[in-house]
Structures are given as structure tokens and as C-alpha cells.
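To the wet lab folks,

You asked to see what we're planning to order before we commit. Fair enough. Below is the target structure as C-alpha cells, and below that is the sequence we designed to fit it. If anything looks off to you, flag it before the synthesis order goes out.
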């Protein structure tokens, strides 16, 4: 079976199970962290494919990657055990990503990102978040990232919308115009 279809099915099952346990918000945070960890640490997926590692070690590794030193939710712990039992733990990377997508759709949450060159006040972040919430009529899972290479301004992304008001992009645009 296609791993994409399989991953979505498992993610739906996890969402239903977590909702029944009233842990869906916590599992969303855990799977978001896990998804991010898979992107940053490519060796994590390779470790899950290692036949020398025991199921207990793989479970510990996944839960540590999702929760750090915090106690994992019952829902995620049971789900990881299920994947190990079914021999599908190698799909966890896709399941974690699919869970986030399904959760946001179910809860009407939009993922937003604000990239700024330096730290900004919480009040400004709050204003950007309220702006996106007003435009999308949804709650916003908002992330702020500092990137000094922007030189100034900001980049605001949500849904399929991107507003690049950075000095870096303005300089690149000017350079392209002058090159003509």
C-alpha cells in the first residue's frame, strides 16, 4: 500500500484516539516537534530502519524526539506501540506530518510564520497574529523566526499567502531591474 495513504490513515486514527482521550492539542504539539525533528535530524529516520535496534529503543527514541524530557501523552505512547507492533514505525515521519495537517483542518487552524531580522516585541507579534486571524477567520498557529540576512523589514507567510517586505528582497528586485 502507498505509504502516503497509509500514513494519512494512521494519522486519522491517532487524531480520533487522541480526541477520545482529550489529548489532541498535546499530541499536536508532540507531532509538530517530531515532524520538525525528522526534518532537522535525518539520522532519526535511518535509526528507525535499523534492524539491530529493539522496539523498546525505537519507542524511546521517538518519544524522546517528540517530547524531550517531558512526559509523553498516553495517546502518543500507545500509538507508537501500535506502529511498532504492526511493523510500521518507519512511517512515523509521514504520520507526524499528516497528523498536523488533519488537526489544523479539523480545528480550523492556519499555520503562520513571521520572519524578522531581529527580535520584536510580543505586542507586535500579537498584532500580526490578529491580522492573520482576521483575514482567515481561523485560529493561527504562529511561529516567529529571526533571520538577520533579511536586513530589515519582515516576511509574513500563512496558508498560500506570502508578503515579503524585507530589505533583502527589495534589493534583489532593484538589482534585477538595473540588470535589464
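Sequence we intend to order:
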Amino acid at each position: 500500500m502507498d505509504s502516503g495513504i497509509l500514513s494519512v490513515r494512521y494519522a486519522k486514527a491517532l487524531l480520533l484516539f487522541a480526541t477520545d482521550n482529550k489529548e489532541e492539542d498535546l499530541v499536536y504539539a508532540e507531532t509538530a516537534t517530531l515532524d520538525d525533528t525528522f526534518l532537522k535530524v535525518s539520522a532519526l529516520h535511518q535509526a528507525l530502519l535499523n534492524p539491530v535496534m529493539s522496539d523498546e529503543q525505537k519507542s524511546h527514541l521517538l518519544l524522546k524526539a517528540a517530547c524531550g524530557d517531558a512526559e509523553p501523552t498516553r495517546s502518543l505512547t500507545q500509538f507508537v506501540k501500535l506502529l511498532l507492533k504492526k511493523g510500521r514505525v518507519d512511517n512515523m515521519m509521514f504520520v507526524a506530518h499528516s497528523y498536523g495537517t488533519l488537526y489544523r483542518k479539523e480545528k480550523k487552524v492556519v499555520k503562520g510564520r513571521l520572519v524578522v531580522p531581529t527580535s520584536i516585541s510580543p505586542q507586535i507579534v500579537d498584532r500580526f497574529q490578529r491580522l492573520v486571524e482576521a483575514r482567515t477567520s481561523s485560529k493561527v498557529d504562529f511561529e516567529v523566526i529571526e533571520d538577520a540576512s533579511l536586513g530589515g523589514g519582515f516576511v509574513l507567510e500563512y496558508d498560500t499567502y506570502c508578503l515579503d517586505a524585507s530589505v533583502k528582497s527589495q534589493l534583489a528586485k532593484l538589482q534585477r531591474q538595473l540588470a535589464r
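Structural context that might help your review: DSSP finds eight helices and four strands in the chain. The chain has a mean pLDDT of 93.

Thanks,
Computational group
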